[in-house]
């Protein structure tokens, strides 16, 4: 069995290395927008698909800057910064520019405020090195942490596009100014997007694949450890192990979604998705079933009762899985919600107290299964150049890691000092060895 696991890990690693090397071949600088290597890093793909029909277009990146004299003027009545990152692309019809789709970030990260604006070009005149378009219709939508916050529009806005020649897709730099009284008055300088984030995405998936393989190995070794002595499994919290399994399922689904959403990076994300899918569906479920059988199997007397017990077990698990997926989907960008996720170790602490037995402090369980959960959010919130474009929160990283360390250290104290060491001796429940005998009844 060990040889099979090692062989599978080697094969998956070789496939990942081959795909990584193959995908680093030189890419053409003039990428189409659907194949652009940086689109998933800077643009919310869901919004792009809903709002903007794309036909062989190019991404332009740059910065926007407010041109309002008054500093308290909010651009689009929403952005409270005076400058930030900006991205846009142009829609063509019969080689004639029709619409400009713009993103204005406040100031640069995708989990902060941003505005998605559509400018419908009309009455444009070419004067020397610039296009001047008047009486344009501008519509925008406002987002915060990728949640829709409202919309607005103006008419008769003026847009000035300063370029070097008429062939815009081949340009490296040009200037766009958008003006409409005080509500919109800003300009941006842009360049054609030529950078590639393939290396960044590849390194992220190598990082996550390594963590996934390490977790898979630890779960497999710990399951073998429990099978050698079934009494050990009664010392584990089914809620804690169930949350670990549900979290692995969520990571597998996330990477499957990323591989489908970003087809250019399919070869990267699919390897990570497969690893976490195998981990969640085979090894984590095997561990859950071992714990459940050793704890509840003796309560059933007939095969029909056993089947009902299994059905109830799977129903509870998948219902919990759906709830966790929905909560993570809607609240994963909120630090307050994330602070509750490390508390899944508390049921194990309570279980140790309730049982009062010797605490199970196995290395594969504590550090391989529980503590490795700290890593993935640390990348998202601790790396300023993460592939998702989220803002770094170093305070969150410190609190998140501290919560894990405190709980694991508490389990260690239970292992050394006893599962009920934190309860004063006078309040501990103790067995009464002396019984009162009523001689009259005898």
UniProtKB/TrEMBL annotation:
<keyword id="KW-0808">Transferase</keyword>
<keyword id="KW-0472">Membrane</keyword>
<keyword id="KW-0833">Ubl conjugation pathway</keyword>
<comment type="pathway">
    <text>Protein modification; protein ubiquitination.</text>
</comment>
<protein>
    <recommendedName>
        <fullName>RING-type E3 ubiquitin transferase</fullName>
        <ecNumber>2.3.2.27</ecNumber>
    </recommendedName>
</protein>
<dbReference type="GO" id="GO:0016491">
    <property type="term" value="F:oxidoreductase activity"/>
</dbReference>
<keyword id="KW-0812">Transmembrane</keyword>
<dbReference type="GO" id="GO:0061630">
    <property type="term" value="F:ubiquitin protein ligase activity"/>
</dbReference>
<feature type="transmembrane region" description="Helical">
    <location>
        <begin position="336"/>
        <end position="354"/>
    </location>
</feature>
<dbReference type="InterPro" id="IPR021319">
    <property type="entry name" value="DUF2921"/>
</dbReference>
<feature type="transmembrane region" description="Helical">
    <location>
        <begin position="310"/>
        <end position="330"/>
    </location>
</feature>
<feature type="domain" description="SWEET-like">
    <location>
        <begin position="195"/>
        <end position="427"/>
    </location>
</feature>
<feature type="transmembrane region" description="Helical">
    <location>
        <begin position="392"/>
        <end position="413"/>
    </location>
</feature>
<keyword id="KW-0560">Oxidoreductase</keyword>
<feature type="transmembrane region" description="Helical">
    <location>
        <begin position="5"/>
        <end position="24"/>
    </location>
</feature>
<dbReference type="GO" id="GO:0012505">
    <property type="term" value="C:endomembrane system"/>
</dbReference>
<dbReference type="Pfam" id="PF11145">
    <property type="entry name" value="DUF2921"/>
</dbReference>
<feature type="transmembrane region" description="Helical">
    <location>
        <begin position="201"/>
        <end position="223"/>
    </location>
</feature>
<feature type="transmembrane region" description="Helical">
    <location>
        <begin position="361"/>
        <end position="380"/>
    </location>
</feature>
<feature type="transmembrane region" description="Helical">
    <location>
        <begin position="264"/>
        <end position="289"/>
    </location>
</feature>
<feature type="transmembrane region" description="Helical">
    <location>
        <begin position="235"/>
        <end position="258"/>
    </location>
</feature>
<keyword id="KW-1133">Transmembrane helix</keyword>
């Amino acid at each position: 069995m060990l040889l099979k696991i090692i062989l599978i890990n080697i094969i998956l690693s070789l496939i990942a290395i081959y795909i990584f090397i193959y995908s680093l071949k030189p890419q053409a600088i003039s990428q189409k927008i659907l194949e652009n290597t940086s689109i998933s890093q800077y643009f919310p793909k869901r919004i792009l698909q809903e709002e903007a029909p794309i036909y062989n277009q190019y991404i332009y990146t740059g910065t926007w800057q407010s041109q309002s004299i008054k500093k308290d003027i909010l651009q689009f009545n929403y952005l409270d910064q005076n400058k930030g990152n900006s991205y846009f692309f142009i829609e063509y019809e019969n080689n004639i520019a029709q619409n400009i789709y713009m993103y204005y970030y406040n100031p640069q990260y995708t989990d902060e405020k941003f505005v998605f604006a559509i400018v419908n070009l009309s009455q444009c005149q070419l004067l020397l090195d610039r296009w001047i378009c008047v009486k344009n219709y501008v519509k925008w939508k406002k987002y915060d942490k990728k949640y829709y916050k409202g919309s607005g529009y103006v008419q008769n806005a003026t847009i000035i596009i300063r370029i070097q020649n008429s062939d815009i897709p081949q340009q490296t730099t040009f200037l766009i100014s958008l003006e409409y009284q005080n509500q919109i008055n800003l300009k941006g300088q842009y360049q054609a997007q030529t950078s590639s984030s393939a290396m960044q995405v590849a390194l992220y998936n190598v990082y996550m694949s390594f963590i996934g393989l390490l977790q898979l190995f630890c779960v497999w070794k710990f399951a073998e450890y429990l099978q050698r002595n079934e009494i050990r499994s009664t010392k584990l919290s089914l809620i804690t192990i169930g949350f670990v399994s549900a979290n692995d399922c969520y990571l597998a689904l996330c990477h499957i979604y990323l591989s489908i959403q970003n087809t250019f990076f399919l070869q990267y994300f699919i390897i990570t998705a497969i690893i976490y899918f195998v981990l969640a569906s085979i090894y984590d479920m095997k561990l859950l079933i071992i714990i459940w059988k050793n704890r509840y199997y003796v309560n059933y007397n007939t095969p029909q009762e056993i089947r009902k017990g299994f059905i109830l077990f799977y129903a509870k698990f998948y219902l919990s899985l759906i709830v966790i997926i929905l909560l993570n989907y809607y609240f994963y960008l909120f630090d307050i919600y994330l602070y509750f996720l490390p508390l899944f170790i508390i049921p194990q602490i309570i279980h140790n107290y309730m049982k009062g037995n010797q605490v199970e402090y196995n290395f594969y369980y504590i550090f391989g299964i529980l503590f490795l959960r700290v890593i993935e959010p640390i990348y998202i919130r601790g790396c300023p150049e993460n592939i998702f474009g989220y803002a770094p929160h170093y305070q969150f990283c410190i609190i998140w890691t501290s919560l894990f360390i405190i709980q694991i250290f508490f389990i260690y104290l239970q292992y050394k000092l006893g599962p009920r060491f934190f309860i004063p001796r006078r309040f501990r429940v103790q067995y009464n060895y002396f019984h009162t005998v009523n001689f009259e009844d005898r």
